[in-house]
Amino acid sequence: MNIKQGLYFGVAVVAMISCTTSKKLKDSEKKYTKLDSINSVVRYEYAKCKEAHAADSARIKSLEEQIDQYKHTSTQMQNQLKDLSFISGSQAESIKKSMDNIGVKDQYITRLQSALNKKDSMNIALMVNLKSAIGNLDDKDVNIKVDKGVVYVDISDKLLFKSGSYDVTDHAKEVLGKVAKVLMSQPEVEFMVEGHTDDAAFKRSPLEDNWDLSTKRATSVIRILQNTYHMPPAKMTAAGRGEYVPVADNETKEGKAANRRTRIVILPQLDQFYKILEKPTN
C-alpha cells in the first residue's frame, strides 16, 4: 500500500468511526428524551398523589384527634366513677365496651391509611408502565393519567377509527396490543372500555345515533382485546356514553376532536376496602 492509498484508507476509517459515533449519540439522545418525558410525567402525577395523600392524612389526623378526645373523656369519666359506689355492673361493662371500641376504631384508621398508600403506589406504577409501553405518541392521540385514584387511558377516535366507522385501524390494533400486554401483567385488574362522541347528530344504517356509535366502538375495542390479545372477557366491560360526558366544549373544532374518544377506565380494586369494612368496629 502506497502513501496515497494509506491516506484514503485512513480517511475511510475515520468516516466510519464518525458515523457509528453519531448514530450511537442519536440513539442515546432519543432514549434520554423518552426517559426524561416519563420522568416528568411521574413527577407530575407524584405531586398530585402527594396532594391527595396530604388531604387524606389531614382527615385521618382529625379522626385521631377525635379519638384522643374520646380517650381523655373516657379516662375522666372512669376516674369520676371510681368514687361512685352506686354504679351498677351493667354500667361498668358499658363503659368498658366504649373504651374498647375506641381502640378498634384506631386500628381501623391505621389499616385504611395503609390501603390508601398501597393503592396510590400501584396506580402510579401502572400509569408509568402504560406510558413506557405505548412510547412517544402524542397526548392528543393517547393520554394516560391518574385522577382521584383511578387510571384512565384516553385514545382519540382519529387514531382508532375512520370517521363514522367502528372498524379499528391497523395502527390502533398495535397500540391496543401494547396496552393489553401491560394489563395482562396485572391479572387482578378489571377495566371498562367507554365509547364517547361529540354532539354532532349521527345516523347511518344500521346505527341509529351517537349512543349506537359509541357502544359499537367500545365493543369493537373489547373484541380485539379478547380475540387478538386474549384478555379475559370477565375482566372487561363495554359501555357507550354517546355525547353526554364531554371533556371539552363542542363549540370548537378542537373541543369536538377531544370529545371523540375511547376511554379505558382501570377500575379500582375495592376488595381490600370491603375486607376492612367487613371487620367489626364496635
The helix-strand sequence is HHEEHHEHEHEH
CATH architectural grouping of the largest domain: 2-Layer Sandwich
Cα distance, first to last residue? 96 Å
Q: Examine the coordinates and then state which fold CATH places here, giving the name of the CATH topology of the largest domain.
A: 60s Ribosomal Protein L30, Chain: A
Structural class: alpha+beta
Low-confidence stretches: none
Tally of domains: 2
Radius of gyration: 29 Å
Total number of helical segments?
Answer: 7
Number of strands: 5
What's the CATH class label of the largest domain? Alpha Beta
Question: Strand count, sense and closure of the main sheet?
Answer: 5 strands, mixed
Biggest sheet, strands in spatial order? 1-2-5-3-4
Q: What is the percentage of strand-forming residues? A: 5-15%
Average of per-residue pLDDT values: 77
Global morphology = extended
Look at the structure and name the CATH superfamily of the largest domain. Answer: OmpA-like domain
